[in-house]
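Example 3.2
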Amino acid sequence: MYNFKVLMGLVFTMILFVSACNSEGDTNADDSSDESNNTEESVVLDLSIPEPEGAKFDVTAKALDEKLDEISNGTMSINIHYNNSLGGEREVFELMSNNSVDMAIQSAGPMVNWVDEFSIFDLPFLFENLDHAHAVMDSEIGDELAQSFEDATNVKTLGWVENGFLATSSNNLIENVDDVAGLDIRVQENELQIDSWNAFGASPTPMAWPEVYTSLQQGVIDAHSNSLATIQTSQIFEVQSNVVILEDRYAPAPIAISKATYDGLTEEQQGYLDEAGGYAVEIGRQANQEKIDEARDFIVENGVEINELDEAGRQSFIDQTEPVYEKWAPVIGEDLIERVRETEY
């Protein structure tokens, strides 16, 4: 009987020991599971810009990266690719569409290849000033344009920054529409831009951007339109003596992301990206204006005369635009054009 009691005691002790070991193992597993659930996988997004380091879109991209890093506790970041190294602007939109590139900050110009309504940004003198343009882009109109592009391409827009209003460089003083009569001016391969300059009495010449500097230098063309910042960075000031602040067109630029990339993020990560995108819009618009101001000073210091159109000079151009609107309003949408005009700011 004594031996039996001793044996049973040993068996009972072993059962307690095994149970304790299993319990400790379960606890460690739970702790490990909790630790795994609390550790979010880091995300690095590749982003294309057409400009060099230090330019306005670089400032925008870095603001996006810094804000993402801050609000995601270091789990999300942006890898910036400069100077269209991932492809030209249209190609990058296509690459985002098939989820081969994550993000881009670049001109909205190519977006018209998928959505006709983006031609609205080529209509001459539609936007009255920068406040008007921002009010439009931040309204339902900007949201609707972004959604139309997303539906057509699977590329989502997080917010609108800009190249801003355009100036026109030439070798003669331009004070009114009569001064561009017969002017050989480079335009993009864009029918609306061609129609506009024909209406002004000029001679528009479609030309790829890499050819512009040499063509101006050799006198193949007389003039071209661009932002003051681009006139500086592309060294157009070396081959042109005059710039008129024509502001005939406003050029927005999306902070864009592949819809597949965006949908692959968690809901929390999408929220981080949306918040950082809104912050980057503010920084990007401010950076563009600062770069334009810097470019203006630089261009003048390098001997180029900058002319601001007075009201009469501006109106002389506007008076010639009626046939352009008659042709393009049915394509773009008369209602959309009117909504832009009526947007309060």
